[in-house]
Amino acid sequence: MSNNIDIDQIKKERNRDVRIMNEKAQARIQNLALPTIVLLQALLVGSIVYIEDAAMIAIIASSTSSISMALISILASFAGADKKDDPVIEFIKMLEKQNTALLEIVNIEKSKSTEMVLDDKAIKVVDGDIKAVVSSDILYGKDKKLKK
Fold it and tell me: Which residue, 29, 7, 138, is CA-closest to 73?
């Protein structure tokens, strides 16, 4: 019994330590994010002034914007901004609903019994199970057998 209490106590302490570490990391990121974004933009403007090669400026601009957007999204997640589902995930959920509805229709249609009769052979489909009723000779029916 004391072993379970020790394990529960250790889990509580570990969860507390993890939460404290997460909060410290969030505080550091929040303190450094805005100055980092401002510094990146200042470096971008400086590179535009001093670098004459347009390709290098484009590379610097793309890296600056991607880092800035990453920091902004991290800050937004810390602030508890509403997270919208990815359009692909929404599309997959819609397809899942459609597939479920189609499967229900197929199951309803499958449960209906139909019967098809061909000459001396009869094939009967009942509730999705296939039942075959055949004449005495399944290969030749009423025809004569072939000789070897």
Answer: 29
